[in-house]
Design a protein that fits this description.
The protein has about 220 residues and is an alpha+beta fold. The protein has one domain (about 10-215). It has helices spanning about 25-30, 55-60, 175-180, 195-215; strands at about 15-20, 35-40, 45-55, 70-75, 80-85, 100-105, 110-120, 125-130, 135-140, 150-155, 165-170, 185-190. It has a 12-stranded antiparallel barrel. Strand 8 (about 125-130) and strand 9 form a beta hairpin. The longest helix has 18 residues, at about 195-215. The chain is globular. May mediate accelerated ATP-independent bidirectional transbilayer migration of phospholipids upon binding calcium ions that results in a loss of phospholipid asymmetry in the plasma membrane.
Length: about 220
């Protein structure tokens, strides 16, 4: 573990990561977008990290699902250990030259990897890359991301797209909760021996999937 980026030793023994968006009272009452805050937990529900989105009011309210952002992820001692950076890019298969790309740094200032959207006319597809921009894993979502009162799952696959090694799940948590708070709950399942840098990139992929497919939805209704 002495070779791990500082703070990522928490991920070393995890094969399941839970991401829970914190409910903002102002957003729930007025419908005004506020900076997103998340708790990142282990499978026992114990908080491992806390994440805060940084951007401005213009981005949040006018560019909501495609907005640029920086998400700073800190451990329980308040030390920033992961930084997720998303530039303003297109969110349409009609613009295959300018699709989504997200950079994950750990420690901040040092590249851990990237999430790159792949063009596909039917399915949501992404490639997970390491710090050298070498392809490592694929993420393939369902044809329809509305779960109709059930979880929505994005499969994590090997590069050949034949072998499934994990998944990112959007948990459906109930009509009242989703409609009135628009809160997000995700689970990430990956092999326990996956490089912790790639686990950090998977957390970034989860944030990207949330904004692209669930930000302005009723979370699967």
């Amino acid at each position: 573990t002495h070779n791990l980026p500082p703070g990522l030793e928490y991920l070393n023994q995890l094969d399941r990561i839970i991401i829970h968006q914190q409910v903002e009272l102002l957003e729930a009452i007025l419908g005004t977008e506020t900076s997103s805050k998340y708790e990142i937990k282990n499978h026992l529900g114990q908080r491992v990290y806390f994440a805060v989105e940084e951007n401005d009011c213009f981005d949040r309210n006018l560019c909501s699902p495609i907005r640029s952002f920086t998400i700073r992820i800190a451990d329980n001692m308040g030390r920033e250990v992961i930084r997720v950076i998303r530039p303003l890019r297109c969110n349409s298969c009609w613009f295959p030259c300018f699709l989504q790309e997200l950079e994950v740094q750990s420690p901040p200032g040092t590249i851990a990897g990237y999430v790159v959207q792949n063009w596909d006319p039917f399915l949501p597809k992404f490639t997970i890359q390491n710090q050298s921009k070498e392809d490592v894993l694929k993420i393939i979502g369902p044809y329809a991301t509305c779960g109709c009162f059930e979880d929505v799952e994005f499969e994590v696959k090997a590069l050949n797209e034949m072998t499934t090694i994990g998944k990112i799940s959007k948990y459906w948590s109930g009509f009242v909760n989703n409609v009135f708070t628009n809160t997000a709950n995700f689970g990430i399942q990956v092999p326990v021996d996956l490089d912790v840098r790639i686990k950090a990139v998977m957390i970034g992929a989860c944030f990207l999937i949330d904004l692209m497919f669930f930000e302005n939805s009723l979370d699967g209704l």
